[in-house]
Amino acid sequence: MEYFAFQWHITEACDQRCKHCYIYALGSHAKFREMATEDMVKVIENCQTFCEKAGRLPYFYITGGDPILHPQFWTLAGLLKERNLPFAILGNPFRLTDEVCQRLKAHGCRKYQLSLDGLRETHDRIRRPGSYHETLAVIPMLRKAGITVAIMATVSKWNVTEIPALVDVAVEQEVDVFAFARYCPSMEDRDTICSPQEYKVMMEQCWEKFQRYEASRCKTTFNLKDHLWTLFKYEKGLFDPGTYPEDDMIYDGCNCGNCHMTILSDGAVYACRRMKSKVGSALTDDLWELFTGPEYEKYRRYDKFEKCARCELLRFCRGCPAVAAGYHGNMYAADPQCWKEV
């Protein structure tokens, strides 16, 4: 049975003030929100009920803010352990110790995702001074505890030229997974994203390193998270949509409205956390009815995508609607970093 992913933001509290953070971009209050324990129990139960109806297994990506800063984080971890529910953490390095890592593993944490947004100087400028070395320092602790370590980079004009070098860092640190995603701008800071040409050049440089490292059988897996990798491979003759049936099935691409649900610290359900896409509440709505209903369906109207609907890769790519939403104010508009002409 396949998993259904819930990205669950249990708190907005965080030790950093990252330049690209969408919590601040959406104008959150100075007083951080955090979910009450009784509401966390309700969310777990609602997610389990949803998965029973969907014929899926729940998989939680617990995040924030930094989820470990939630005063009832270990209560939540205990609830997940009692129900044998797998989870991963998307968090910061600052609260991790050998003891905490071992405790996370004992509670069923399978993966811990850390962020590197450039080499030391760039990363520390984007996140906070000293955080580059603090991030590297906890990787051995997580690995020692038997927790999969993932490194994620957020790509913007600030760091696009350094992403290929981060591939080397990830391999040197023997992390399990390396991936990058793109910065989602607002219309006021659209100039912070790199051009399609800059982005494609960066991808080419990373691809060459991926191939070389994979040939050497290194430990790190390179997750092609950005769906523009599909376009990249298509142009290299490494992906053939003609091998799939000629139907209306969506085989891959952006998971918005598809096999993913985001739950915020106030219970709000978003189709995608990277853009304003509230569709209901995990505290008051039946999640199955929500997911199969009209509010969610707005994010599955693939015929409305202005550029993608005319592309032979519609069923496999669709770029990033959140980037399009931030850049144009319209998620159906063309992905501003897609270089393909249609």
Order of helices and strands: EHHEHEHEHHEHEHEHEEEHHH
Q: What's the total number of strands?
A: 10
The number of helical segments is 12
Mean pLDDT figure? 93
Anisotropy-based shape: globular
Radius of gyration: 20 Å
Helicity level: 25-40%
Which structural class best describes the helix and strand composition? Answer: alpha/beta
- Determine the N-to-C terminus distance: 37 Å
| Percent in strands | 15-25%
Strand order of the largest sheet: 7-6-5-4-3-2-1-8-9-10
- Please mark out the parts with pLDDT under 50 across 5 or more consecutive residues, or reply none: 24-30
Mind describing the biggest β-sheet?
10 strands, mixed
Structure description:
The two termini are 37 Å apart. Mean pLDDT is 93; it is low at 24-30. This protein is 35% helix and 15% strand. The protein is built from twelve helices and ten strands. Helix 2 (37-54) runs parallel beside helix 3 (73-82), helix 4 (98-106) packs across helix 6 and helix 7 packs parallel to helix 8 (196-215). The chain has 342 residues and is an alpha/beta fold. It is globular. It has a ten-stranded mixed beta sheet with strand order 7-6-5-4-3-2-1-8-9-10.
